[in-house]
Amino acid sequence: MKKRLTEKISGSLMQEDAPMAKFTSFRAGGCADLLVQPQNIKELQDVLQVLQEEGCPHMVLGNGSNVLVKDGGYRGVIVKLGSGFDHVTVEGNVIRCGSGALLSAVAKAAADAGLTGMECLSGIPGSIGGAVFMNAGAYGGEIKDVLRKVSVISQDGAHLSELDTGSLDLGYRHSILQQTGDIVLEAEFMLQPGNETEIKEKMAELKARRNEKQPVNYPSAGSFFKRPEGYFAGKLVQDADLKGVSVGGAEVSQLHSGFLINKGGATATDIIQLMRIVQAAVMERFGVMLEPEVRIIGEE
User: Fold this and answer.
1) SS3 of 41, please?
2) 3-state secondary structure of 9
3) What is the CATH number of the domain that holds 186?
4) 247-277: b or e for each residue (b if 16 or more CB lie within 10 Å)?
5) What is the CATH number of the domain that holds 275?
6) b/e code 209-237 from CB counts within 10 Å (16+ = b)
7) Is residue 276 flagged as an active site residue?
8) Which one of the listed residues 43, 142, 251, 293 is annotated catalytic?
9) Whether residues 72 and 92 fall in one domain
10) Is 104 a catalytic site residue?
């Protein structure tokens, strides 16, 4: 299979036994059998078609800010989108960008153009593709509030199509992509004209709030748990007296209880064991089962 892939993209864009700690924000986890970095849509399409024909398990990765790979690694191919998916262009009130572009970069481009609507998303450390996949949100806003449409490719690389926001079934940390497996190639956002200075001041204010209240100096995947209906996950964890509880190098942040952090040398197993301790304690105390927002993949 690697030989077939080398016929499609440069061998320099492939890495065997790729340490996923290097490619995910938790800075923990095992190795993927193979990591491939297609640089454009044609290369991605070719890679996906080979993987489909070979029946090889695979997963597309953006910035890796919401993924944890178990210590046993990933038996298959991680497809990490290359630099050809990072483009951002502004035309009037519309921003078009590749799925590999960082939310922060898109929000900055919007601010520089005097366009408002993405301020609340500016501090999310993910890529556009992952943000659409999860309908990422923060500070009362979500991707769906400003997203107009996306172009996607099917998981087997055979079909390209466009989906508007209605077709994406965007809800709390959910999109239809989680069922279909379609992969975002590009996204288009409709924003509103605003005052550049005010927009940048708002972004700076939200950044300051984030730095004050979130453990940004430690590797993590942001808020680890989804918000249960009628509750706040971090409040449940705090009220269960779990702040500061640790397993190995993993800890429930003492700054924000909704974050599980890598204090240093944490393994994926440490993080998962800590997650289970938190889930069990919150369930016992409040009768609420916390579900991870983080995607956990691979083998023990």
Assistant:
1) helix
2) coil
3) 3.30.465.10
4) bbbbbbbeebbbbbbbeeebbbbbbbebbeb
5) 3.90.78.10
6) ebeeebbbebbbbbbbbbbeeeeebbebb
7) no
8) 293
9) no
10) no
Annotated catalytic, 209?
Answer: no
Is there a single domain that holds both residue 75 and residue 125?
A: no
CB atoms within 10 A of CB 87: 12
Selecting among 223, 227, 253, 257, the annotated active-site residue is 223
pLDDT per residue as tens digits for the range 87-144:
999 999 999 999 999 999 999 999 999 999 999 999 898 899 999 999 999 888 999 9
User: Which of 27, 173, 227, 295 does the annotation list as catalytic?
Assistant: 173
* Domain limits for position 289: 217-297
- The whole-model pTM stands at 0.91
CA gap 57, 73 in Å, rounded:
13
What are the pLDDT digits (tens) for 169-183?
A: 999 999 999 999 999
Residue 190 near residue 148 (C-beta atoms within 8 A): yes
Same domain for 49 and 73? yes
- Do 264 and 226 share a structural domain? yes
Distances (CA, A) of 229 to 112, 233, 289: 37, 10, 11
